[in-house]
């Protein structure tokens, strides 16, 4: 038994899919302690969009550390924080015509979601929240109440209250879910009160890679305006350029009331999370929502550097270009292999749905890993193989990774012939 199995909790998860000990990481390649290299289609669950040990960001971090600049400061003023705020406002928000105040919270996505929920309830005076079925928003109690994965919810050990889950628009094509929500709001016998907020991911990632329709998103924005409900967009995983625009909601031309960011906003895989809120919503009392590690100064440095790198290398356009490569490959090389497969995606997040081939998605994880590719699965029954490489992945490694997926798929399908 190795040291991990002997001393680490049974709660560990990803390591069970990738039975090796990793030691190095660079750009789009992971290397284990035996020197074996793996193409990365996992991207730290979306935390390293700009690649592992990005040279540009690393140089900024090393310089900051060498100069003995402050690392921990709670929410006190510091030069690194000021520099990030100024750059984020000037280079990201202003060009998009967005007016938000920034709240720095504890360093994970669920911290940002928890703060968003508290703020929405405080501002509106309402306790209820609407969320979509298929959603994943985090593993702490408030975020978990939004999340619909049964195993995750069971882990709470207590009842999860004050959230009404609405069918996601892809679940029942004949059901107009916007009309359904409006009916709930207007029917004095629905038994459901008007919520403080509706919380969504514009692309359900862990839900199985479902990009929500642009017109649906626009209608939801209009509905929230009509009934004075806050629209909260969780951009923790699908923000920071993953969909081809920095914010995932840009493609719909909507402006959420609150946005949560984490994962790749840290630039280098460093823990960092923040909430963007419209100025009129900033009704917090000083210290009303705190956290010892809010305002991670080193992450402010890497976050700013990550944004600089993104803009200087036109990462948004590159994501769309590479996404088209994945799209074409999946439709040309993968779908023809078996009529039971489905694919869907946007930008550099794509899913191959194995729901009609039970057990195949888990076998795909193993088959890909054995061939030198790290990839994960998501969705109902974990039946969706999720393709999510770093946005800076080389064309060559992107192609090689896709070819590994195809090779693994051919081997797996041989054991699951169509009836």
UniProtKB/TrEMBL annotation:
Keywords: Aminotransferase, Pyridoxal phosphate, Transferase. It comes from the Bacteria. It is an enzyme of class 2 (transferase). One of its GO terms (biological process) is ectoine biosynthetic process. Pathway: Amine and polyamine biosynthesis; ectoine biosynthesis; L-ectoine from L-aspartate 4-semialdehyde: step 1/3. Its EC number is 2.6.1.76. Its cofactor is pyridoxal 5'-phosphate. The keyword Transferase applies. One of its GO terms (molecular function) is diaminobutyrate-pyruvate transaminase activity. It holds the Pfam family Aminotran_3. Belongs to the class-III pyridoxal-phosphate-dependent aminotransferase family. This is Diaminobutyrate--2-oxoglutarate transaminase. It comes from Neobittarella massiliensis. The gene is ectB.
